[in-house]
Amino acid sequence: MYDVKDDGDTLYSKVSYEGDGGKWGLYAAPSTSNVIDIRKVNLDIPEGRRVTVTVYDDKAMKKKVYEISGRA
Q1: Residues facing residue 27 across a β-bridge
Q2: What are phi and psi of 30, to 5 degrees?
Q3: Engineered SS bond to 29: which of 3, 16, 33, 46, CB 3.0-4.6 Å?
């Protein structure tokens, strides 16, 4: 996840996958004064699981921007 503009605005990505009780996590690039902020995560999602990434404009996950699904 990248944030390339130091404008005080952050996008939040909710990554969820089926199975194991429907695990999910909310991730955002760190908000620093660097030119580019990068956040890397290794979710170790088992092969074949359906994965959904939902992008929000707020940490409360009320302003959905985009959603995409696929298989790991």
Answers
A1: 13
A2: -65, 145
A3: 3
